[in-house]
Amino acid sequence: MQHTSTRRIAVTRYNVMVRNLLLWNSGKTSSKNIQWVLPSSYFVWTDYDDVDLSSSQNMEQSIGACWANGAYSAFYKKILIDITKRMSQFEDKHRIKLLVQKLVIICPLSCNANGSLEGKDGNIKAEGHLEEIIEDEGANNNRTYITNVYKIRGPSESYIAAEIPSPLSTLFEMRDVMDSVILQYHRDCFIETLRDLLKSDQCIILEYDDLNSPEPLHSFLLSKLGG
């Protein structure tokens, strides 16, 4: 096999299993078919760089796309209700000005979404939250949705409403059992699908290389948001 600059990924029985479980979940195949569609040994090589992430909303191709759709319908669609109005109310109440009148969604490329922003950078501090959204979701009545506001220390104090997508933490926990390139593919599908779903909403998605960036998170945010 020739080695080129194009990275290639091996889709093993694990990946076939994921694909067929997604088919079963969508009702496109029955549970009895799951057994015989799984080959005993199955390898497919595909060009990772040639994958069209714009088509990543095809749920049969990526668990990342599934999670993005789930996060949008169960979380983002709710917390973005009247978010500009709620931001203005927070500004008036606390006599501050947000850097941007948008929800800042920070996607760490390591997928480490555990903990708060405070724990990732000592120059970022929680300063409260926007007015809560309370809605019924699934079997949870009166579920509360909170959007946190953070203060960023820099040349001057800056404020943003921000969060990290929690579904990324699942990929982070799978890093020891999933091939790193496959994990990266699902991560990229999650981010691009979420970006597409939120393109008409008051939010901005930032990808931060938390493992290799020479720039600490607070400096990265200030440079990207004009602080």
From TrEMBL:
UniProt record, GO biological process: activation of innate immune response; autophagosome assembly; innate immune response; positive regulation of macroautophagy; positive regulation of type I interferon production; reticulophagy
Of the GO CC terms on this record, one is: autophagosome
Q: What is this protein called?
A: STING ligand-binding domain-containing protein
Concerning InterPro entries, the annotation shows: STING, STING_C_sf, STING_LBD
Domain STING ligand-binding residues, every copy: 68-202
Molecular functions (GO terms):
2',3'-cyclic GMP-AMP binding; cyclic-di-GMP binding
Q: Where is the signal peptide?
A: none
